[in-house]
């Protein structure tokens, strides 16, 4: 409640203090004790947009009305308040020996608070968020202070320019608003397949991924239980040649692709490494006569391929680095059939005329199993 001071130049008017009734913009009335003295009133007339908690949210004009007109006033001139803050006014008026002192505080806050959004955590990867987050809005207001702010949760859709909006309200009722922009992607890329191309003591690992995949990682380990894995490739390509492998050894490859937001897709595949003899893979099970494939040798005119099952049962001299085995054949006058069981095969390169029988070093040997 405002402090109102009533002073009387004569001692007989001090009893009037108990009869003063006032409010924020209500008149101050001083009743007369004697019929020879008037009843006087002072009324502040305050015009402006009313906010909250006793604050005005616009420029404020203050005028004073009197009944009857006083003999003299101080601080009672008409006034327009434009500045934010609390303005202290004090209107004093005199009617003969009667004196009224009317203090009035006018609080003005026309300025909305300054607002900013604060995410619940830093971006997950490369400036991207990849799972739900909450943005809390905070504000500053140097005049009336902050009454409260909002928050907003976001969990999609994916958008490189996602936006959430919020606000803060000051104690005068002004509302400030702000937006928080960010990149959001919670959808992993797709990794549709992983394939192998076998080479001499090497494997080309190839993968097919969706267009949003930006990075690939390849880890290799033995297929033994508990075997540790090592990262053999990390980059933006879609193929990797893994070298210096042991022919006949079985390897497990873990291929993972990542998008810009670090969402990932993963596939685990295993295969057996080869030497110069590429197909079938060492120890592979086949249901039909296989096509034998090996690494070509520079300068070779032909190759000698030998098939062993306990003893040599086939020798052939193809001119290309491959041979499709027949179901039946005759070797050294005896007919053979490709029956169920394990077979080993070997290849030598030949140079010049076949009749010269000029062979190079053994390319290698491998095996396959014909299933029943």
Proportion of residues in β-strands: over 45%
When the domains are counted, the total is: 4
* Helix and strand composition category: mainly beta
* Biggest sheet statistics: 6 strands, mixed
Which radius of gyration do the C-alpha atoms yield? 48 Å
Poorly predicted runs of 5 or more residues: 1-24
Secondary structure tally: strands: 34
**Could you estimate the helical fraction of the residues in percent?**
under 10%
Task: Look at the structure and give the mean pLDDT.
Answer: 91
Number of helices: 0
Terminal Cα span? 104 Å
In one word, what is the shape? rod-shaped
Oligomer: single chain
Describe the structure.
The chain has about 375 residues and is mainly β. The chain has strands at about 5-10, 30, 40-45, 55, 60-65, 70-75, 80, 85-95, 100-110, 115-120, 130, 135-140, 145-150, 150-155, 160-170, 175-185, 190-200, 200-210, 215-220, 230-235, 240, 250-260, 265-270, 275-280, 285, 290-295, 300-310, 310-315, 320-325, 330, 335, 340-350, 360, 365-370. The chain folds into four domains: about 5-110, no CATH class; about 115-185; about 190-270, Immunoglobulins (Immunoglobulin-like), CATH 2.60.40.10; about 275-370, Immunoglobulins (Immunoglobulin-like), CATH 2.60.40. Strands 25, 27, 28, 32, 33 and 34 form a six-stranded mixed β-sheet that branches. Strands 1, 4, 6, 8 and 9 form a five-stranded mixed β-sheet that branches. A hairpin with a 2-residue loop joins strand 8 (about 85-95) and strand 9 (about 100-110). The model is unreliable at about 1-25 (pLDDT under 50).
